[in-house]
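Researcher: Here's a chain I'd like modeled. Treat it as a single chain, no partners, no ligands.
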Amino acid sequence: MKKAVQKCSSVKKRLATALVCTLATLTAPGLSWSQDQGLMDEKALTSLKQMSDYLAGASALSFRSSTFFDIIDKDGIKIKSGRQSDVIIKRPDKLYINANADDGSAATIWYDGEKLTYWRRDTNEAMSLDFKGTTDAMLDHLVEEYDIQLPLTDLLYSSVNKMVSDNIVSAKYIGVRTVGGVPTHQLSMESAGADWQIWIEADSTPVPRRYAIDLTGQEHQPQFLAILDNWSIGREVDDYYFTAALPDSTKTTAFKKPEAQ
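Model: Modeled as a single isolated chain. Structure tokens:
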């Protein structure tokens, strides 16, 4: 989504339509405008908060994600890569991720509230980190101390809205669109360094169904797309899902930043 400020600026080259652009922005119901931000559509922000509150209210949830993202090679060429992940979250301090990429790499992650284990199944290597706290605190710790972000990190926090709302500089409600046969609310957002869109199920179970990001702040502006399905909300989840189960042959190493691995 292009910035509303830029959109109006370009139109101002034609005086008549500039006035229409300005009046529409200032007077349309549910829209607000500021010099520092851009178009802030209250319907978009409300839909995002409803999704966040719904996910936060679940004692446990699980979903499957099929993600496609750009890897920039040494020649600057964008290479599309894919990965499928199964995710289970149990509030407030348990997480399981099982991921398989199209290049053959595969990983499983367990967090039981006291220990995080990351197992590269394709190389049979594992790292573990002792950390006692909530899943939110663990995710913060990974970013701050190790520069590691797990897949779909924003959706793993107890409050998605809290994670993203402070960085939103523009928001627009696009309309109802069908994703996988399911009606969804399509929202378009701008944040510092990224333009992103999210499609949220348009019924009493407002889960995200699609998530797309353009990393405009990075060279080559790589893109990311996730399709989210197989949702389960609030069902009981046994704790054994979050306890690491490694083969005896697994090689274990100290927990390190990605560049040091």
